[in-house]
Design brief:
single chain; alpha+beta; four-stranded antiparallel sheet; two-stranded antiparallel ribbon; 32% helix
Length: 161
């Protein structure tokens, strides 16, 4: 039942305990206890709304994906630099990667210049970071398994996003 509950909450964290109990064919008490256990043991780390910032007045923001090459420290690997990077408020996500680069960092800022300044003054100056590559997000189509825009038909019958 635990895995099914996790899948349901991942799909929609706004389900009520009553709805979850019905879907899982169990009691509300059991569902509430299991949710508390998953929160207490760190399996559930938080609940968030997925926002289409293009629809929010003055909500304009710029996102970038930054690839970092890092020299890992003996005994610590990439953990020390990843923990440092994830503390910045501009940083949305940090991932250790396989392949050409080591860390993938997703950041948000008000402008392109804000992100460029953050990369130049904060990320690039970390002593174990050897290089950065910044990719600006032009448009979001889907985030956290939620479609942010749907195709629309224009007057010619052509579809666009």
């Amino acid at each position: 039942m635990e895995k099914e509950l996790i899948k349901l909450l991942h799909h929609n964290a706004r389900y009520t305990v009553e709805e979850l109990a019905t879907m899982l064919d169990t009691s509300e008490t059991q569902v509430a206890a299991l949710i508390k256990k998953l929160e207490d043991n760190g399996t559930i780390r938080g609940y968030k709304a997925v926002i289409n910032w293009d629809k929010v007045e003055d909500g304009a923001c710029v996102s970038a994906i930054i690839e970092l090459n890092v020299v890992p420290k003996a005994g610590l690997g990439f953990e020390e630099v990843a923990e440092k990077i994830m503390k910045y408020p501009e940083v949305e996500s940090v991932y250790l990667m396989s392949g050409v680069y080591d860390l993938n960092v997703v950041v948000k800022g008000k402008t392109l210049q804000d992100i460029a300044r953050f990369v130049a003054k904060e990320l690039a100056t970390i002593d174990t970071v050897t290089s950065t590559t910044t990719h600006f997000v032009m448009r979001r189509y889907k985030e956290m398994n939620v479609e942010l825009c749907s195709p629309k038909e224009d007057e010619r019958g052509q579809f666009w996003l």
